[in-house]
Specification:
This is Sulfite oxidase. The chain has about 375 residues and is mostly beta strands. The chain has five helices and 22 strands. It is about 10% helix and about 35% strand. The strands form five sheets. The protein has a six-stranded mixed sheet with strand order 14-15-22-21-17-18, with no helix packed on it. Strands 2-1-10-5-6 form a five-stranded mixed sheet. Strands 3, 4, 7, 8 and 9 form a five-stranded antiparallel sheet that branches. The protein is globular and about 70 Å long. The structure holds ligand MTE and molybdenum atom.
Length: about 375
């Protein structure tokens, strides 16, 4: 057998092609956050979205070690107890998958078919990555820092552990955590037990779960997840285009779906009268400065009341009163961040379906209570 007989190349769906059974298999392993969970400042762990490329490895905390090696003065191997004895830091961080919004693209890149729920916010506790790197002592000539997870698989013909690298300048940011707690509890297996990387502001792929090795290298890392998978490429025909790397989270605002849903269509039903719309907004490029709300499908916009960020990389709550009148309405929200980025209404298509932060209309039907 050769890998070509096992591994599927990436592809784009036919214009009218529905979600395939392979996509359903991914979608049922990797669940979204139900949008009503945006009512919580901190997402309860079972409601936080999950994305795992291969299998969830089962690691024994008694034998697990984290190694720091490569271009360092003093290679390190630490166990969990030693790591927990180091200075402890907690940050509230909103995590979003780079593929969030992919299923809204036409044509649809065939992969995990996220709508907009691939997001969640947690309090992550652990040691600062930079403390570990300083203990090891980064040697002269270091270029990239490579993080390896304990999970292993095959993707488009390449077999590897899940590995991602950051440049040395990014990797030595004080914000990055080697985390062993989520919301004050040991990490759940699906979120990286016993230890994961948390890279605040970056899309999910950088936050390596089941972290077991950190290697400092003297060259730009060419591993699959950096060089092939997470690239922004606009032209599916151009196989030679290396694209640009996926990095920080683009701004997005989402509404807590108002009222109650219709079971199959998820159309929202709201009673006539005054409602307080609420939602969350975030960006990896700077705090959110302004959220706009439209209750007429983008014709007119008003500013929402926006709460300050509780932590530099945590989502911000917003509210906006709405006088709901009988009939059908399309609600839209859009975020503006401190870097000047703003959400658009047209998806920016990429071959992998990354960073589609176009605002999505929420269909609401306003009607009186039916007679019983
Ligand atoms: N080891 C490992 N780390 C990983 C992944 C993975 O498949 N293996 N998936 C990444 C991706 S693409 C995302 S979006 C986040 C999801 O983190 P969560 O499941 O804790 O929400 O984990 C990242 N870290
Ligand atoms: Mo992701």
């Amino acid at each position: 057998m050769s890998v070509d007989q096992v591994s599927t190349p990436s592809r784009v769906a036919e214009p009218d092609e529905g979600i395939t059974l392979e996509e359903l298999a991914l979608a049922s392993r990797n669940h979204a956050m139900p949008l009503e969970a945006m009512r919580y400042d901190v997402t309860p762990p079972g409601l936080h979205y999950v994305l795992t490329h291969y299998d969830i490895p089962m690691l024994d905390p008694a034998t697990w070690r984290l190694t720091v090696r490569g271009l360092v003065d003093r290679p390190i191997s630490v166990d969990l107890e030693t790591l927990k004895a180091m200075p402890r830091h907690t940050s509230r961080v909103t995590l979003e998958c780079a593929g969030n919004g992919r299923a809204h693209l036409t044509p649809r890149p065939v992969s995990q078919p996220w709508l907009t729920g691939a997001v969640g916010t947690a309090d992550w506790t652990g040691v600062r990555l930079v403390d570990l790197l300083e203990d090891a002592g980064i040697a002269r000539g270091a270029v990239d820092v490579v993080f390896s997870g304990a999970d292993h698989g095959l993707d488009r013909g390449t077999e590897d552990d899940y590995r991602r690298a950051l440049g040395v300048a990014d990797a030595t940011s004080e914000e990055i955590l080697v985390a062993y707690e989520m919301n004050g509890q040991p990490l759940p297996p699906q979120h990286g037990f016993p230890v994961r990387l948390v890279v605040p502001g970056w899309y999910g792929m950088a936050h390596v779960k089941w972290l077991c090795d950190i290697e400092v290298v003297d060259h730009a890392f060419e591993g699959f997840q950096n060089a092939v998978a997470y690239r922004i490429k606009r032209n599916a025909e151009d196989a030679d285009d290396p694209g640009t790397p996926v990095t920080r989270i683009e701004p997005r605002a989402l509404l807590v779906p108002p009222g109650f849903p219709d079971f199959m269509s998820r159309t929202r039903v709201v009673r006539p009268g005054t409602h307080l719309l609420e939602g969350r907004a975030w960006s990896g490029w700077g705090v959110v400065r302004r959220v706009e709300v439209s209750t007429d499908d983008g014709h007119t916009w008003v500013d929402a009341d926006l709460e300050p960020a509780p932590d530099r990389h945590a989502w911000q709550r917003f509210t906006c009163p709405w006088e709901a009148t009988d009939g059908q309405h399309y609600l839209r929200v859009r975020a503006h961040d401190a870097s000047g980025r703003v959400q658009g209404d047209e998806p920016a298509w990429t071959t992998g379906g990354f960073a589609n932060n176009a605002d999505e209309a929420v269909r609401v039907v306003v009607m009186e209570e039916p007679p019983r």
